[in-house]
């Protein structure tokens, strides 16, 4: 385990050095990330002008959820997208062959090769939106709610990893899926909205088959209200299911994988 932790931080360090080689590009993408945060806020404020609530959320609650949504951009776009977008290339160009020869778990290797730091503004805008939301609500979460939130945030990150990796691992079975890593990130945008606004059928899909609506809503709601025991348990169960499923898809895919040079 110590070896994997050391490698993980080594990859982060190498990614930072790579970012600093192209500082103008780094600064440009930071500005773009800040712009996306501003557009998210603007869209929410325009929406709230037409309705005082969105589903069952008030304006303050919407800001808290939006803040957490922006914070979670860091693992989604700064880590997973950066690494997972390379997996189709590894497979189609035969680079996976070299990875499989390493004395390190291949799933870990393809999941941690690259990180991006231009999404740093999302951390600060996300915290800002959250604090402003609590100011509107006229409250601040208790220590128990905060501890619960951090744990649920970790579980949600694991669920995101499981869903995202299960998607990109399908490249091992079907050739020419070079853009499959965009599928999950497109669905991620739906996670900022309450499930109440969707039709019953779509809501069921977004909480079971593709439980994207759980990864933001449940942790964010834990900051301003108690999480229902069923939702708390269900989030853990569905996370375990997707982590196991993603591992199975990857390992079974490797058995059918043939080198790009063969």
UniProtKB/TrEMBL annotation:
The keyword Zinc does not apply. This is ABC transporter permease. The lineage of its organism: Bacteria, Candidatus Amesiibacteriota. It holds the Pfam family ABC2_membrane_6. The chain crosses the membrane at residues 26-50, 62-81, 115-134, 146-174, 201-220, 232-250. Keywords: Membrane, Transmembrane, Transmembrane helix. InterPro entries: ABC-2_transporter-like. It comes from Candidatus Amesbacteria bacterium RIFCSPHIGHO2_01_FULL_48_32b.
């Amino acid at each position: 385990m110590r070896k994997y932790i050391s490698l993980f931080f080594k990859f982060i360090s190498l990614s930072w050095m790579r970012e600093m080689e192209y500082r103008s590009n780094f600064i440009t993408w930071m500005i773009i990330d800040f712009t996306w945060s501003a557009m998210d806020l603007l869209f929410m404020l325009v929406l709230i002008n037409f309705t005082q609530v969105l589903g069952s959320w008030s304006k303050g609650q919407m800001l808290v959820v939006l803040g957490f949504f922006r914070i979670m951009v860091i693992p989604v776009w700064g880590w997973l997208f950066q690494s997972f977008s390379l997996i189709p290339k590894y497979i189609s160009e035969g680079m996976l062959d070299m990875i499989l020869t390493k004395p390190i778990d291949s799933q870990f290797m393809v999941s941690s090769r690259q990180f991006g730091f231009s999404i740093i503004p999302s951390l600060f805008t996300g915290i800002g939106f959250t604090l402003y939301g609590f100011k509107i609500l006229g409250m601040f979460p208790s220590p128990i709610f905060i501890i619960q939130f951090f744990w649920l945030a970790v579980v949600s990150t694991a669920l995101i990893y499981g869903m995202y990796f299960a998607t990109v691992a399908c490249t091992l079975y079907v050739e020419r899926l070079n853009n499959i890593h965009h599928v999950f990130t497109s669905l991620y945008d739906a996670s900022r909205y309450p499930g109440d606004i969707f039709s019953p059928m779509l809501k069921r899909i977004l909480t079971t088959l593709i439980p994207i609506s759980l990864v933001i809503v449940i942790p964010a709601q834990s900051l301003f209200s108690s999480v229902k025991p069923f939702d708390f348990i269900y989030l853990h169960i569905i996370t375990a299911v997707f982590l196991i499923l993603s591992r199975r898809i990857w390992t079974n895919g490797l058995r059918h994988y043939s080198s790009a040079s063969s």
